[in-house]
Amino acid sequence: MSRQLAASPSVVTPNQSDCRQIAPKKVVLVDDDQFFTRNLERLLKRQGFTVVTVKSAIGLSATVEREQPDLLLLDVTMPSLSGDRAADALRKAGLAKCPIILLSALPKEQLAATAARCQATGFISKVRRAEDILKEIALVLERWEA
Q1: Domains observed in the chain
Q2: In this predicted model, what pLDDT tens digit does every residue of 113-139 receive, in sequence order?
Q3: Got the DSSP string for 28-77?
């Protein structure tokens, strides 16, 4: 997995003119990679998001019911329960009332197919720059709210 989010302070703090403005939202971030999670959490908090982090998708339905997030960010490749399987289960149970974005370092074509299969709203490659991750989140939220 790429460690680009922590490459330099300029990567972690994107230029505001390059990024769409994102209204503050509550995000549940599910990822077993502590380094990636910590850096993405910092990035999102700097943009005004409230971030709840979870290390495993096991028990995610209870977290979603309790937190009522505006956005779910799910890592695809987690050991116990993959993000795509968790997304599929949440959708089938009617618990995902917000956009779901899959995160992964998988090849783009594979990640796109996985997102389509589980009805995720979007997907983001973990190897992208911080600015690109924020732009993709903003686009997904805009489409969801439209």
Answers
A1: 21-145 (3.40.50.2300)
A2: 999 999 999 999 988 888 889 999 999
A3: EEE-S-HHHHHHHHHHHHHTT-EEEEES-STTHHHHHHHH--SEEEEES-
